[in-house]
Amino acid sequence: MTDQYHAPTLNGFIAGGDHERRPAVLVAAFEGWNDAGSAASDAVRSILDTSAAEHVATIGLDDYYDYQFTRPTSKLTERGREVQWPQTDIYRIAQPGADADLLVVLGVEPTFRWQGFCARILEHAAAQNVRAALTLGALLADVPHTRPVPTSMASDDPGLQEHFNITASSYAGPTGIPSVLGIELQRSGIPTMSLWAQLSHYVAQAPSPRVQLALVELLEELLPVSIPAQQLREDAVAWKLGVDELAASDPEVSKYVQQLEAATDASELPEASGETIAREFERYLRRRGRYRTDGSGPDFEI
Predict the structure, then answer these.
(1) What is the model's pLDDT at position 61?
(2) Alpha-carbon gap, residue 222 to 48, rounded angstroms
(3) Is 238 within the bounds of a domain?
(4) Which pLDDT belongs to residue 63?
(5) Bridge-partner residues for 27, per DSSP?
(6) What is the pLDDT of residues 105-149, one digit of tens each?
């Protein structure tokens, strides 16, 4: 099955182009309103934690943040007490075996001057020859923690829609910096798509390893990255068991979770296509190869 089908990737999307300079794929996530459970920022941070990254630039400090709204933090280090200011950093990760490098944008949603903030990122995207972009977000939703994490991909770009068999988002309403940046990237001529995951609103506190894991697995499908996730998978299992125990101890919460489960199970589900089955089989083989050194033993169930 996997000999006949391979999930589409962002590298594959830009591979056919004629590039005078080494291209890059931009990946962005921001702490704040569109980062429920810190799942999106933690997923992108996991790329940096497992890669040799070159720091390109820092955006922020006094230009874009209200420190009464987004407070700096302090900690004691070997050099004395230091202040960590909210900011956004840009890193480039070389991918010699792939068609493009990664340009990772990770930081905190700015308080004001969003257009100027996005313009700064676009300047660095142009300088780094970004040819496609992916923004990540996580949102609170009426979904049960006992079911698979709902995820979605969308794009306004016709080429990406065809390549990934996705559509434009139908959402209209208040928005955050991932969406604003995505719109500005698309307007500048950089094909951009978004990836979102949903977190059960009754367990909104960070971290949320189960939702982070769902995003990490999709990042591995879309990008030429391999992120060691065995500990994250174990954390996700422990997280779910912990929430199960908390829900079981409160009859009202338990009843509410059951209602969400019933609504989720009763919702109309698309019939599984050959492409969907092949994608899931590829994901299963990737997990099996990573976590089973002898080819035996059960997979983790989350």
Answers:
(1) 75
(2) 16
(3) no
(4) 85
(5) 104, 134
(6) 999 999 999 999 999 999 999 999 999 999 999 999 999 999 999
Pairing status of strand 87-93 against strand 101-108: antiparallel
What's CA 290's distance to the chain center, in Å? 21
| Chain center to CA of 31 | 12
Cis peptide before 207 (omega within 30 of 0): yes
Domain extent, residue 30, equals 10-228
pTM of the model: 0.86
Quick one: pLDDT at residue 4?
53
Per the structure block, which two tokens stand in for 163? 């390549």
Distance CA 54, CA 63 (A): 24
Question: Could you tell me which of 174, 136, 140 has the C-alpha nearest to residue 153?
Answer: 136
DSSP, res 99? S
- pLDDT, residue 2, reads 44
What are the residues whose beta carbons fall under 8 Å from the beta carbon of 141, sequence distance 6 or more?
150, 198, 199, 200, 201
Total structural domains within the chain: 1
Question: Which of 224, 252, 300 lies closest to 50 in space, CA to CA?
Answer: 224
Contact 177/119 with Cβ under 8 angstroms?
Answer: no
Beta strand ranges found along the chain (DSSP E): 24-31, 53-60, 73-77, 80-84, 87-93, 101-108, 130-141, 151-155, 192-200
**Residue pLDDT, tens place only, 7-31:** 789 988 988 666 678 999 999 999 9
Question: What CATH number is associated with residue 79?
Answer: 3.40.50.10900
Q: What gap in Å lies between CA 275 and CA 179, rounded to an integer?
A: 28
